[in-house]
Amino acid sequence: KSILAIVAIAGLAFTSCSDDNGPSTPKSTFELKVDDLKGNINDGTVTLDPSQTYTLTGGLVVKSGATLTIPAGTTIKSDSRDGIDPNTLYIAVERGATININGEANNAVVMTSGKASPAEGNWGGLIICGDAKVNTGDNGTSEVGGLSYGGNNNADSSGKINFLRIEYTGSKYSSNKEYNGVSFFGVGSGTEVTNIYAFESGDDGVEFFGGAVNASNIAIVNAYDDSLDFADGYQGTITNVYISGVSKAGVEGSNNLDNDIATPLTNAKLINVSIVKGTDAKFTASEQSINFKEGGGKHTYTNLFVSGITTFAKLDTGTGATARISAGDFKVNGKNFVSTSNLTTDYISTETGAGNGATIPSWASKIQKAI
């Protein structure tokens, strides 16, 4: 009896110690290699080491049920070898999977090119898929990566992105199929997105395909298509946006390519936005500050500042878009944008935008200086 009592007490003590340490992180069968980062994370949690610089040599896909955690200060560089197809270099998060990018101010997570002379399009980018509503259907396929996305859970969580600098992305499969810096496909509002600095993207800097995720502190510098893009019934609020170096539109907002009155209508609210054309001749802003496209949906811009772009907006002339404009669903700094005669109306002279007009805000500088 004495022996049994001692064993029981020891067991209780061991259990108590285990509880004090909290739940253990589930192990993964994924083989993590610093100089050969690629493959499918099928299970458990994979955590990168911030003291290492990882080389992305192929597609890294976080599968449903698995988690990828990237601590502050971690750097991932794309494969620099000649002959590598940049379209094969990307990071993707499946619907039902989780990514935790845990950067900090002045100590961001960095995803960049490994080339000695980096340029836009050196690699794909970051793709995140969720289970939130999209007006193109509940089971779409991402235009790059071939991942399923969309559903009926607008509160879905794909994890979090905090303090991420992502550079030289946007490789192209074809003239109308390319990666963005960060692509959100049907991502839900349970996902935390804040402090992203997208630099030198061959396509859009950041794009939202439907979903209901909110975002704050988004800087997009030198995007070679649109800078910020949302479409396909996106429902969310994006706060503090700094855009500089505009090739096409500073912001492109669409409802649906195939059905411009598809529901749910895109309903985007943007608060504190600076759009700066840029001084380099290659930044022409050919589609203006805002491209109200493919039915447009509902847009509300509060404290929007624009510099260097004379004509304010490019307008879809289809019946879906004109109905939204007539209904007062395109609002800029407290005014309803109601006709093409308003294209050069002064909406912006007294606004401060994302911080101090055309000047890069301090929160973006903290990510910019992180490397």
Brief synopsis:
With 371 residues, this protein is mainly β. It has helices at residues 2-20, 319-326, 362-368, and strands spanning 37-41, 45-47, 53-62, 67-71, 75-78, 91-93, 98-102, 109-112, 126-129, 140-141, 148-149, 159-167, 172-174, 177-178, 182-185, 192-201, 206-209, 215-223, 228-231, 235-246, 251-254, 267-276, 290-293, 298-307, 313-315, 330-332, 335-336.
Protein described:
This protein is mainly β. It has three helices and 27 strands. It has a 23-stranded mixed sheet that branches. The chain has a two-stranded antiparallel ribbon with strand order 10-11. Strand 10 (140-141) and strand 11 (148-149) form a beta hairpin. The model is unreliable at 1-20 (pLDDT under 50).
Instruction: Quote the distance from N terminus to C terminus.
Output: 64 Å
**Which of globular, elongated, flat, extended, rod-shaped describes the shape?**
globular
Q: What is the rounded Rg?
A: 22 Å
Largest sheet: 23 strands, mixed
* SS field, number of helical segments: 3
Q: What sequence of helices (H) and strands (E) makes up the elements?
A: HEEEEEEEEEEEEEEEEEEEEEEEEEHEEH
The helix-and-strand class reads: mainly beta
> What's the pLDDT, averaged over the residues?
91
Low-confidence stretches: 1-20
Strand content: 35-45%
Number of strands: 27
Give the helix proportion (percent range). Answer: under 10%
